[in-house]
Structure prediction request, 978 residues.
Amino acid sequence: MTTRAFAGIKSNLMRLACALVMAALAPRVLAQEPLVLGVFPRYNASETTTRYTPLAEHLSAHVGRQVVLQTSRDFVSFWRGVEERRYDIVQYNQYHYIRSAKNYQVIAHNKEFGKSTMAGAVYVRKDSGINNLAQLRGRTVLFGGGEDAMISYIVPVYMMLQAGVKKDQFTSQFAVTPINSVIGVFRKQADAAGSADNALGQPLIKNAINTDELTALAVSEQLLQLPWAVKRTMPAQLREAIRSSLVDLENSEAGKSVLKTALLTGIGKADDKDYDAHRKMVRAVMGPL
Amino acid sequence: MRLGLSAKFTITVLVILLCTMAANTLYFLGTSTRFHEQQLLERGRALGRLVSLISPEAILGFDFLLLNDYTREVSSQPDVVYGVIVTPQGVPISSHVDTTDAFIKKRLRDGKSADVTQLIQKREGAEDLIRLEFPITHNDVLLGRFLVGISRDSLQSQLRRQVLIQALVMSAIVLFLSAAIYGAFRYNVLFPIRRLIAASGEVGRGRYTAVEVKSADELGQLARAFNAMAEEVKEEQAKLHRQANFDSLTGLPNRMMAFDRINLEIHRARRSGQRFAVLFIDLDNFKSVNDTLGHAVGDELLTAIGARLQESLREADTVARLGGDEFLILVPDVVSEVEVEKIAERMLQSVSEPRELNGRKVVIHCSVGIAIYPDNGDSVETLMANADNAMYQAKAAQEGSAIFFTEEMNIRLRERMQMEQDLNLAIDLGQLALHFQPIVDTSGPRHRGAEALLRWYHPDKGLISPAEFIPLAEATGQIVGIGDWVLEQACRSWRAWQDSGLNPGFLAINVSRVQFRKRFSKRLAELMANYRIPPHALEIEITESVLLDDHQQVIEELNSLRAAGVKLALDDFGTGYSSLSYLKRFKFDVLKIDRSFVAGLPGNPDDVSLVKAILAMANGLDLRVLAEGVETHAQLDFLAAQDCDFVQGYLIAKPMSEDAYGGYLKNRLANGDAASFTVIHQKRTRGSI
Prediction:
């Protein structure tokens, strides 16, 4: 090998070294990009922005990374974002989490109305003559949300299945929200409503109808509330930072304000096994995951 | 209640304004109501359409909260009482009621059901509610209906407010306009009218006041017309005053002013204690001037006499024409009767002066009656009556004389009045009677007839001479009734004698000029027919005075009598005008020579000449002549010698009663015609009449 050739090899090695250094430095640069916070379209986009922007800013301030809130027009587009793993942090329902658990890891759960848990319930009018779930056979049941609604659909259907009423033995209809499903029954638009166990106590319903005319036909076991999840690829340090940031919200006035804006009473820790009960019900109602 | 012009005008204006304003307000309110109701409906429709447009999504998604938001939002709109979304089957799935609505608030306050459905049902029963319904469809599938209840309550209260405000504004406008119009009316119409009323009152009180003309409008024209009228009234009043107080012919004060002057003089004399004289002047025979020379000459004479009288008097004296040919002179401040007598004499002379009128020399006299205040009366009426009475006495005594009034005159006047009263009853009381004086041929004893002579047997005064009461009866018009009685009585008597076979001959009946005017011939024809009197049995005697009247009427009457075959005699010939033209113009059968001429026969040469002349003239005119008042044989002889046809008088027979005359006729028949004559002159006879 000649000197000239050696010089050429040396030059190429230098270029390679530079490229390697640059390649090593590249992930660090990428990690500094904003974290995308995705929130399922429980509310419309503008309300979601109003309610969750303070929380995103809180996370940005405490996690050391900018957190950007990304809203979805509807569940379809939201779910597409989940499947495409466009969200670094995501807040959705239990069924969503169970379906996306391969890519996302639960880190926390919502506390709503001061509770970490919630149960599904089936409501009927007191004057309907329906006294047990089996009587819903051949009837119309109005569920809140859609078929992916954990508390308002999957859990009530699970209870009906448990009561021996198969899915093809009743007519399913869906109201936009669980509250509407309860109002629908009150308004005699369906024989029963699938909703949360705290539905009748909500001011929204109390203001709209006379809840005394309704009764809960069945109430499920208590299930952990809506999960917060992050990408499984997220560094553990960052994941923990996000979890602690969320959980610590209820410990400060500023955090409480953020929670209040998001209509939450707190956020608690959660692990994947906390959603096994949900998972069992989903499998029973929706089939294998 | 009597309303003034201003009140009527103001009320009219008020009514018109109120009606106009009320109509305007009603129209405005009607329009406003329709407009606002239309607005309500449009608003309701807009809301309904919007909700029905946006609701399908929520219905399909069972989004009742959103539907509630819709109904709540709709219900919160003004005037919207409720919004309800119902299923096609009518089941409400969202509803909201405005609890501030008065009706609902009341029901809730009354503790009635708060159920929305019930509230809405009750509310829909109210009249003020407009119920709208909108279908909610999706892809032409009916999802439900949206019901909206809209209340007119606020609209109505708004309208009530508007009515109130409108009424207040209208009242203010009406008051203002009324006040303004009234003010303008008062200034422009009422004031001028009041000025005209005041001026009219002044004119009514005889004080002419011109009204100031301020404008050229109708009121100005009225004021000008009023001024012109007032001016004319003033002139007319002056004219009327002249006409009322002055004689249009002579320009002298008339009877009314004469009375006023005497009245004033009475007051003045009463205060001063002085005397004054009233001279009543009546022209003698003035009628003959009018009849012979014409009324124009008569008027000229009156004017001249009036002027002459005025010239003859002092300035303080008053000459007035009382009417016709009567004048009055008022002489104030009379000291003695002598002074008045001189004035009267001056008047007599002044009137008597000959005048050249219409180419003819006219002499007329007057009679003057004088009354002195206070000796002969202290009132206008008494003085006038007494002066008049004195004048008549003067005229009766001697025409062309002046006589002072005396109480005796009044006594005579009273007697005359009493006689007039008694005469009124004379026929009814049977006090009148006819006497008959035979008429015979002068040449022999042949009886021709008789003259009917009226007698009045007064129960107190005995027999009253016709010469005494006939002039009175003629003056009072009583002669018409009396004459008619005489005529009928004569006819009745003639018929009785004739029926008794007494052959009474003819009856000569005197007819007054007054009686002659009353279609005498017709009445005579009736009586002749009633009593079957042959025409030759009647002879109508009239005096020359009858002929002085309207010639045409007299000629017609005389012709009628002649046509009926009645004889006509001219009585008292020679005592009056004895106008030969009468004899030529009017055809008479007989001339009667007055007894005054016969009395002097045959000794008085004048009477002899006169009687001879009358007889010669009668002979020439182929008239028979009858001499009255033959009392002596000498008279009879003379008349017979002069070929007088008939005689009548005491020598032949005195006037006798009906019965006596019947006896006379009977006796005559028994003894032959000559029996009643003691002297018979055989002259010549002309044959029977």
